[in-house]
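agent> Task received from the user: take the single chain below, predict its 3D structure, and emit structure tokens. No templates, no multimer pairing.
agent> Plan: (1) validate residues, (2) run structure prediction, (3) serialize to tokens, (4) report one or two observations.
agent> Step 1 OK, no nonstandard residues flagged.
tool_call: predict_structure(input=
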Amino acid sequence: MKEDVSMELNVLCNEVLPGGATWSHVLKRGTALRITDVEGGANVAAYFLNFELPSERFNLPDTLKAQHTARLTKGHVLYSDMGRILCSITEDTVGWHDTLAGMSTAALVEKKYGQATYQQARNDWHQNARDSLSIELGKYGLGVRDLHATVNLFSKVAVDNDGDLHYCPGNSQPGSYVELRAEMNVLVLLNCCQHPLDPSKTYAPRPVTLSISRVPAPRIDDPCRVSCRENARGFLLTEFYFL
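)
tool_result: status=success, residues=243
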């Protein structure tokens, strides 16, 4: 009980991100963001930048190469293009987050679900991740040229022997969550549009809840730090940045 009370006291805010919506926040070093799939089957396109130096951005190829993986889960970190660590994945009940399929676009959404503008459908209008994230970046003086590869949280894509990508339904169950610990002051951008390979013909993006909490600094034996030699070096570079 005492542990639960302590965790509650560390929570700074909670909010719901509706399906299709976009969100951004400067996640401060020393805090963590927990994203929870409310209904199951959510998809969250996520992108990250160093808020203090926006030219330093999430580098998906280096993130995968350094950790010898093609998916992300607990124990992995998110690298910037300067070899530093933006966020660490400290908790994950899903087990597989897609790094291969990219984000939805206006052309893809219109082809799959038809056209539904805000004037026609109001809050149920058909949105897409690329345009929505680009608009969100505009709030910080950035734009589409600053948007690079994203990761699709809660979604799983498998690759067959011919190299074809296959979306795996049911990867995330109701109540599943992933937690990202900020290792620097990170501009986090999230979008809740459906995965670009989702086979559903109905436009029905799912909501998630967002919770930000205070967390202790990573220890020298932190699981994300010791998972591979490259991560240990990434943490050292990040700590040197703050000296």
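agent> Step 4: summary for the user.
Residues 1-6 have pLDDT under 50 and may be disordered.
agent> Done.
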